[in-house]
Design brief:
- The protein is an alpha/beta fold.
- 40% of the residues lie in helices and 19% in strands.
- Strands 1-2-4-3-5-6-7-8-9 form a nine-stranded mixed sheet, sandwiched between helices.
- Strand 8 and strand 9 form a beta hairpin.
- The radius of gyration is 17 Å and the shape is globular.
């Protein structure tokens, strides 16, 4: 089973000054930063960008109040960020390298869902990452041979954004898709649909058959893999497997449900993960 990300249908209640940085391939990335202290970069999941993800925006705001520099950004192809004509996971790793360089030269990474797996690829590539916090990485213990990625790509290539979005939400309760179609968020979701294969590629690379202990042997940073107290079986199973596979990882449970966290509990967990005592 592949469980997709829960999509927020609200907009960010507060906006900070948008800044821009250019990635290695020339793609311009939009980001915000708040606070003063060790840098934490927040990596969004599929169907998320700053103006469409208030939960992460609120979390970043709260972490800034805890003495961190909180950086949120629009991943390529979303929001105010640009994109390239072709996609590769390495380009998103280069995006994170540019963001980290522009914000102090080193950073902890918080990744949500597929963004958590992107954080792992960034650390494995040798970026100056101090620590990782991974929220419910949607990794299957047995890959599907790339079928999910191909299904999304075929629909996007055919111009079928609604079909791609339905594939993305296929493991969610059916009423969620119907509610999304009726919501004001639906046009934005269709705008984001061409980026869904990006997240699928991030997951497919991890599920290609090579053991995670081998793929991520270089991820020696302190890593906290987090799952909600009320969640689907896929997430704890993947978190347990990552705890066994990564050199310095711990699986912790945080108050949350439906692939989302409770903000107070998450702030406490991130301060423990990224604070001086860690």
């Amino acid at each position: 089973m592949r469980v997709s990300d829960v999509v927020s249908v609200y907009t960010h209640p507060e906006a900070f000054m948008t800044e821009f940085v250019t990635s290695t391939d020339g793609t311009r990335l939009a980001y915000e930063r708040e606070g003063d202290g060790p840098t934490v970069v927040f990596i969004g999941a599929a169907m998320q960008f700053r103006a469409f993800d208030p939960r992460t925006g609120e979390l970043a705001h709260r972490m800034a109040a805890q003495g961190f520099t909180a950086v949120t950004y629009d991943r390529r192809g979303r929001g105010e960020s640009g994109d390239a004509s072709t996609y590769h996971v390495d380009r998103e790793v280069e995006d994170l390298a540019a963001l980290i360089e522009a914000n102090g030269g080193s950073a902890a990474l918080f990744g949500s869902s597929s963004g958590a797996v992107l954080a792992l690829w960034a650390a494995a590539a040798g970026l100056p990452v101090t620590a990782l916090a991974l929220w419910e990485p949607p990794l299957a213990l047995e890959g599907d041979g790339g079928a999910y990625q191909r299904s999304l790509t075929e629909r996007i290539t055919a111009g079928d954004r609604e079909g791609a979005t339905a594939v993305f939400m296929q493991d969610m309760p059916p009423e969620w898709l119907e509610a999304s179609r009726r919501s004001p968020a639906w046009p934005t979701m269709l705008t984001l649909a061409p980026t869904l294969p990006y997240d699928a590629a991030i997951l497919a690379k991890a599920e290609a058959g090579t053991p995670w202990a081998t793929q991520w042997a270089a991820v020696t940073q302190p890593t906290t893999v987090m799952t909600g107290a009320e969640t689907l079986p896929l997430f704890p199973a993947a978190a347990d497997a990552l705890e066994r596979s990564l050199p310095s990882a711990a699986h912790v449970t945080v108050a949350g449900a439906n692939h989302g966290w409770e903000t107070d509990a998450m702030v406490e967990a991130l301060v423990r993960a990224f604070g001086p005592s860690r």
